[in-house]
Amino acid sequence: MEISFKNVDYTYQPNTPFEHKAIRNLSFKVASGTFVAIVGHTGSGKSTVIQHLNGLLTPTYGEVSIGDYKLTPEKKIKNIKDLRKRVGVVFQYPEHQLFEETIEKDIAFGPKNFGANEEAIKERIIEVMQSVNLPEQLLTRSPFDLSGGQMRRAAIAGVLAVDPEVLVLDEPTAGLDPRGQRDMMEMFYRLHHSKKLTTFLVTHSMEDALEYADHVIVLDKGTKFMEGKPSEVFLRQKELNEVQLDIPEVIKILFKVKEKLGISLSYKGQSTYDLACELKAALGGGSTNE
Amino acid sequence: MNNALIIGQYVPSNSFIHRLDPRTKIVIIFFFVIFVFFANSVASYGLLTLFSISSALATKIKLSFIIKGLTPVWILIIFTFILHLIVTKEGEVLFEVFSYPIFSGAVILGAAIALRFFLLILVTSLLTLTTTPIEITDAIEHILQPLNRIKFPVHELALMMSISLRFIPTLMQETEKISKAQASRGVDFKTGPMKDRIQAIVPLLVPLFISAFKRAEELAMAMEARGYQGGDGRTKLRELKIERRDWLTFFGFALVILSLFLTRS
């Protein structure tokens, strides 16, 4: 689904001493099927932005459109449930939302709320268990018997079971070990392509944003600071440092190489390994410089 | 929901009232609550109203914010007033509403009770508005200190209070987070038949209880790891100290009470 923000403001607890403007005058447009990364320092409004995507929040000013749904401050949309069916949100630490006696029931919870029939739900459960890489034997177990990583997968399966068209991920890899983080991101990337999803990823990892996203939105204090292709945005080191963001390792290497050795390599999305090979070639392969 | 009720909320500032020793505030409010019932003339009520409003102004919190925050209480106050109008039958008949006589005594009594009610709520909510929960528990622990002699576990009581107060906002946040997550999975907390809405609470309560128990366990572990073993010989990070402004406040309050008795009829 195509998603756009038009001059959106959102204020928490307006007209109280706790009034807090979380986003101001935010506009962007995302085409259907895009993998979007939203990055920004703590308190930059990332979480507020994603809560607009399925109507948990409605803008204080401006307009948010998600496909045919329009969120404006004036009127509430009636078919909000329909919107929530089509936009799945995986919140931070999604394992905290597990509550049923068995994993099977917990995964079925979402589809049931959205009115899917028993048989379709059964099929979906098998499918999503495969997607998140959990063995089917676990279905009858209590979610609270699982390990942390498995719990998270089960919770994500519960969101995927609804079969959303837009997937919103709020730091889905927080608190996982490096291997788990990698597996999790690969899984979302696979799903993004196989299901032709529009994906929003909120992340602190510039590496992930560079590797998976088609489009990066950099937020700072509730406003859009930068926007564009990751390979372009992340070359602007100085500006990113201004808003307390770092650049991905690979690009850092490029800059360092240029600074120390005077060799300028261009970034075309290569991996650290490929880059090392290029550097080796540029230095005249296998010389003493190695 | 967030701005409906301000009772129990703390609004940070650096006003005179904020800086007073919490014990001063608690003691004064304790006596204020008693002395409110001694007022019986227009002048004495006026005096107490003046005292409460000027204290409220001295907190530097917008008066409109406080008044609005007491909305649910207003409903209660108006309800008591109307109840008095209907039930009390003293004095002369002032006028009739739908041929039901309203007595002058009823208006006066109703107004007095409503005002008394308002003053009580206003002044007590000033305590929580200007004092952090931690300060309040510290003060209570101090004030209850004499009970230690009869082996009353004052420190443990204060600890329990401060822990539960400390975790109220955390639990509120947690509730909001989980309810948002479940709403995203299609739970409808706000509309639909009563039966469905009651059922919608289960996916909210189960995760909430689980995280509360986990948190409690972690807290106990962390406290033990740092060698916590109760109140004996424990020093305080924030020493409470009665300063000049506290004495001044006590003095001012004593003057108010004195004039209260002078203006009584």
TrEMBL record, chain A:
PROSITE patterns tied to this protein: ABC_TRANSPORTER_1 (PS00211), ABC_TRANSPORTER_2 (PS50893)
Keyword Acetylation on entry: no
Documented EC number(s): 7.-.-.-
Compartmental location: Cell membrane
Pfam family, one: ABC_tran
Chief place of localization: membrane
ABC transporter domain location: 3-246
UniProt entry keywords in alphabetical sequence: ATP-binding, Cell membrane, Membrane, Nucleotide-binding, Translocase, Transport
GO MF entries: ATP binding
Matches recorded under PANTHER family: ENERGY-COUPLING FACTOR TRANSPORTER ATP-BINDING PROTEIN ECFA2, HEAVY METAL TRANSPORTER
Subunit composition and interactions: Forms a stable energy-coupling factor (ECF) transporter complex composed of 2 membrane-embedded substrate-binding proteins (S component), 2 ATP-binding proteins (A component) and 2 transmembrane proteins (T component).
Family under the similarity heading: Belongs to the ABC transporter superfamily. Energy-coupling factor EcfA family.
Entry function: ATP-binding (A) component of a common energy-coupling factor (ECF) ABC-transporter complex.
Name of this chain's protein: Energy-coupling factor transporter ATP-binding protein EcfA2
Organism: Aquibacillus rhizosphaerae
Taxonomic lineage from the root: Bacteria, Bacillati, Bacillota, Bacilli, Bacillales
Automatic annotation (TrEMBL), chain B:
Self-association state and partner proteins as the record states: Forms a stable energy-coupling factor (ECF) transporter complex composed of 2 membrane-embedded substrate-binding proteins (S component), 2 ATP-binding proteins (A component) and 2 transmembrane proteins (T component).
PANTHER family: PROTEIN ABCI12, CHLOROPLASTIC
Localization of this protein: Cell membrane
Key word Oxidoreductase present: no
Lipid bilayer topology: Multi-pass membrane protein
Name of the gene: ecfT
Main location group: membrane
Keyword match Ubl conjugation: no
Domain of life: Bacteria
Residue ranges crossing the lipid bilayer per the database entry: 26-53, 65-86, 98-123, 247-263
Stated role: Transmembrane (T) component of an energy-coupling factor (ECF) ABC-transporter complex. Unlike classic ABC transporters this ECF transporter provides the energy necessary to transport a number of different substrates.
Family: Belongs to the energy-coupling factor EcfT family.
Protein name: Energy-coupling factor transporter transmembrane protein EcfT
Keywords, sorted A to Z: Cell membrane, Membrane, Transmembrane, Transmembrane helix, Transport
InterPro entries: ABC/ECF_trnsptr_transmembrane (IPR003339), EcfT (IPR024919)
